[in-house]
Amino acid sequence: MLGSSMYALRLQRVELKHASRNGIFRRWMSVRPQDIGISEVRKKVTIQSLYQNKANGTPISMLTAYDYPTAVACSSHPVDITLVGDSLAQVCLGYPSTTHLSVAEMIHHTRAVARGTTHPLLIADMPFGSYHTGIEDALRNAVRMVQDGHVEGVKMEGGQELTEIVRRLSSVGIPVMAHVGLLPQRHIAMSGYKVQGRDRNGAKRILADALALQEAGAFSIVLEAIPKELGKYITEKLEIPTIGIGAGPHTDGQVLVWDDMMGTWNGHKAKFVRRFANAKHERDSGVEAYCEAVKSRSFPDENTESYSLDKNEWAQFLEDQKSQ
Ligand SMILES: Nc1nc(=O)c2c([nH]1)NC[C@@H]1CN(c3ccc(C(=O)N[C@@H](CCC(=O)O)C(=O)O)cc3)CN21
Ligand SMILES: CC(C)C(=O)C(=O)O
């Protein structure tokens, strides 16, 4: 056991050396997936490979993750991009809105996700307020996300007003994913979570935003809650891959929130959500069965789930107790 794990460690180190010598050093590229319980080796997803997806019409799968186990689950399947979305605020931390999430809280979670991430590209949301107080603040916070949070790129919500920030981050090599349409960080200003671009002028504005963000250097863009016709049109107009959530079937990729996809989210179910599992049912029946077993003393089983000591040792122990 010890021997084999030391061997794996040594091998890992050798591979790391090899990778860095060849100039293809990437944090996880050379980590043996078995180390975190992943059996299949997949090629690291890169911005270039995402462009190839768009070119050859292979859909891009993006899923949110908020901690180590969800990151490992993404890394165990052909998820192309793992997103530490700021939906973290609501679905994991119990805040009423994404606007409550701090950079420190986000980084705490991105570090855990990074530890469980192998082949997927790792992107995280810039929290509300972390890119609104000036270009240098945005850059400083993005650097924190990369350096302390271990993410490979950042996502930010907004349109043409963000182009200078996108340009600055891109210019120093921090990949930026843009996000237009429904902007959850602005739900108060937008009077709720509403489908965007439903009239001619709204649609024009979203297209203009998407084009401006591409021109500023965004490597990809999320289209949230817009009509499917517009999702298709923007996807055809842009050179960068579009990732839709409630933007119809014609975007270059799709994203869903982990808890929506798993069927564990108790809150509102948006029209664009499909539950691909009913993990809530499994989870609840597990908790119920556990409580029942404890209360009925059927758990733990005396023989298979408990420890014992040698009969003679125990007799001696009791004997010693008498003379105390
Ligand atoms: N669980 C969860 N899933 C998400 O997709 C998500 C979050 N949380 N939290 C952060 C944001 C908020 N999002 C939301 C929240 C609500 C709607 C929603 O209720 N949409 C209405 C549209 C109504 C209309 O304009 O016609 C819907 O019924 O689909 C959409 C996106 C997306 N993000
Ligand atoms: C749903 C995705 C796109 C997101 O922004 C989030 O998880 O916060």
Automatic annotation (TrEMBL):
Pathway: Cofactor biosynthesis; (R)-pantothenate biosynthesis; (R)-pantoate from 3-methyl-2-oxobutanoate: step 1/2. Belongs to the PanB family. One of its GO terms (molecular function) is magnesium ion binding. This is 3-methyl-2-oxobutanoate hydroxymethyltransferase. InterPro entries: Pantoate_hydroxy_MeTrfase, Pyrv/PenolPyrv_kinase-like_dom, Pyrv_kinase-like_dom_sf. It comes from Pleurotus ostreatus (Oyster mushroom). Keywords: Pantothenate biosynthesis, Transferase. Pfam families: Pantoate_transf. GO terms for biological process: pantothenate biosynthetic process. Catalyzes the reversible reaction in which hydroxymethyl group from 5,10-methylenetetrahydrofolate is transferred onto alpha-ketoisovalerate to form ketopantoate. The lineage of its organism: Eukaryota, Fungi, Dikarya, Basidiomycota, Agaricomycotina. NCBIfam families: panB, PRK00311.1.
